[in-house]
Amino acid sequence: MFRRDSHPRVFGTELHLVPHIGIAKIDAMATALEDVDRALDDKGFFNIQDAAMGGRMLAIESQQSFLSELQLTGDTVSRIESVIRNSFHRYGGCTLGHAMIHGSSPDHIICFRKDRDRRSILVLVWPPGSQAKFWVGSHKLDLPVKRGPEYHLHFSREHLENAACVEEQIFFPNGGLTVLDARLGHEKYTGDPFTLEFATNDVVAEWTPMYFPKMQDLEGKIAEMQNESRNKDTRISFNYCLVSIEDFKEMRTRVKPIVDKARP
Asked: Which of 29, 88, 198, 263 has a CA 20 to 30 Å removed from the CA of 94?
């Protein structure tokens, strides 16, 4: 099964592949990196309507395969690789420390971090028909938050409105991507996005690793994805731990979430 909020950091348990679908990089679009970076600074997020990624989400949902989810992770990294590198260039690199399906949460305004500057970004891959709201500029505000039952942080709508924050509603009829500052308040109304969180290496060092089953093909795939960035100025690493297939499947049955050791 896909991972949900109640079972963070454990991928699906089925261990078969679905056919790979080629995904174009964001560089092939008419979108300039400066525009993306400006949007992340000013608004806190950037959206891409993308039917190809929406189709990948539909395929993954029907297969519920761990390796297919890993393929989607690789496709997503490839799709927005230049954005990730540009965001973390001044830090010399970043680490993927979070990859899971998040269920929709209407009327819950959440964020993932509260830092002075942007040290983490989220990439949400939306299935067709998804709808979300983003509170423009909330990543810049020092507003009180409450820790949720998992590891989200929750904003008060009243606090955001009093700070003159405006919500922007986005609809993804055919699926798409959102790149956002992890400090930004957002609501997922419909659709369960596949969520990747990239952060500076020192931040991710405090997190519980993602758990992957110990399989030869899997280790090779992860090594391949990491090696692709080894010789580049801004390296993208993975924070993961290999466990036996038996332990991996047992983790999926746990009721208590595996919570990060430190989530500010």
From this structure: 29
Within the chain, what is the greatest distance between any pair of CA atoms? Answer: 54
257 part of a folded domain? no
Strand-pair category, 93-101 with 176-181: unpaired
Examine residue 130 and state whether it is found in any structural domain, yes or no. yes
pLDDT of residue 185: 92
pLDDT of residue 151: 65
* Domain enclosing residue 96, as ranges: 26-251
Asked if residue 54 is part of any domain, the answer here is: yes
| Three-state secondary structure readout of 111-176 | ECCCCCCCCEEEEEEECCCEEEEEEECHHHCCCCEEECCCCCEEECHHHHHHCCCEEEEEEECCCE
Got the DSSP string for 200-226? Answer: -HHHHTTSPPEEEE--HHHHHHHHHHH
The residue among 155, 166, 180, 177 whose CA lies nearest residue 37 is: 180
Residue 179 pLDDT class (50, 70, 90 cuts): very high
Chain centroid to CA 201: 16
Q: Domain for residue 2, yes or no? A: no
When divided into structural domains, the chain yields a total of 1
CATH number at 43 reads: 2.60.120
pTM of the predicted protein model? 0.82
Collapsed DSSP state (helix, strand, coil) of residue 86: helix
